[in-house]
């Protein structure tokens, strides 16, 4: 297979996978991104979609609102570090267990799972529901397909549901990573925290 044919195959599979990015992506389209036969342009397309979540005005406004409202909070926060911790821990489980959930789905679900937290503080909306509502607006505008959006929303909606604790796939991974991300064993507010003892990470467990 010559180099030109390989490039064409890589380009076609990326387009089929990611679709054309709309104009509001700031000109970062698949067409003007370098395409390589090893599929690295697919990874670039996935990163683009995650970056578009990060830069989405609804995401940024919500993240900043939550971080502002939690400035004096002594218990676990739901800031940018928590969102990325959950993404990385879930992806580690994905690798360690040989599960094949695509990395971009794990990162998208993790980035968005607590994004409605500020609406729980200000309007009393349970934050898994508020986060799913915001994510349902954000994801299609960032190039996610209907099926990807459905899987991510399922994971967001079940991230506080004990039934997901032993579930396989994306929902189970996000639930477990969310709990594992909390360093209860090193938290000065642990005695006052209303998490049940079995939910708390009272020892350093790897
Ligand atoms: Fe949460
Ligand atoms: Fe969380």
Name its key features.
206 residues, mainly alpha, Hypothetical protein af1432, 2 domains, 56% helix, binds fe (ii) ion
Overview of this protein structure:
This protein has 206 residues and is mainly alpha-helical. The protein folds into 2 domains: 1-51; 56-206, Orthogonal Bundle (Hypothetical protein af1432), CATH 1.10.3210.10. The chain has helices at 3-18, 40-55, 57-69, 80-96, 103-112, 117-123, 127-138, 146-157, 169-180. The longest helix has 17 residues, at 80-96. 34% of the residues are buried. The protein binds fe (ii) ion (FE2) (2 copies). The site of one fe (ii) ion has 5 residues, from loops.
- What portion of the residues fall into strands of 2 or more residues? under 5%
Secondary-structure arrangement, i.e. CATH architecture of the largest domain: Orthogonal Bundle
CATH level 1 name of the largest domain: Mainly Alpha
Q: Provide the domain count.
A: 2
Q: Please, how many helices?
A: 9
Ligand kinds: fe (ii) ion
Radius of gyration: 19 Å
Point out poorly predicted stretches: 5-35
Brief sketch in words of this structure:
The chain has helices at residues 3-18, 40-55, 57-69, 80-96, 103-112, 117-123, 127-138, 146-157, 169-180. It has 206 residues and is mostly helical.
Secondary structure blueprint with pairings:
Elements: H1 3-18, H2 40-55, H3 57-69, H4 80-96, H5 103-112, H6 117-123, H7 127-138, H8 146-157, H9 169-180
Helix pairs in contact: 1-2, 2-5, 3-6, 4-5, 4-9, 5-8, 5-9, 6-7, 7-8, 8-9
The structure holds fe (ii) ion (2 copies).
């Amino acid at each position: 297979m010559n180099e030109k044919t390989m490039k064409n195959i890589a380009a076609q599979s990326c387009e089929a996978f990611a679709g054309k990015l709309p104009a509001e992506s700031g000109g970062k389209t698949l067409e003007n991104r370098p395409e390589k036969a090893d599929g690295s342009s697919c990874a670039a397309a996935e990163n683009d979609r995650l970056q578009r979540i990060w830069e989405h005005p609804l995401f940024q406004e919500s993240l900043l609102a939550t971080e502002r409202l939690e400035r004096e909070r002594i218990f676990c926060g739901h800031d940018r570090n928590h969102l990325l911790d959950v993404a990385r821990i879930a992806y580690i489980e994905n690798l360690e267990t040989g599960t094949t959930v695509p990395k971009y789905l794990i990162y998208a679900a993790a980035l968005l799972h607590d994004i409605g937290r500020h609406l729980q503080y200000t309007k009393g909306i349970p934050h898994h529901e508020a986060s799913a509502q915001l994510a349902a607006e954000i994801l299609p505008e960032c190039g996610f397909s209907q099926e990807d959006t459905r899987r991510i929303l399922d994971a967001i909606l079940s991230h506080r549901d004990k039934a997901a604790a032993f579930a396989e796939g994306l929902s189970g991974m996000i639930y477990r990573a969310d709990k594992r991300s909390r360093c209860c064993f090193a938290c000065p507010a642990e005695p006052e925290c209303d998490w049940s003892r079995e939910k708390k990470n009272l020892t350093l467990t790897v």
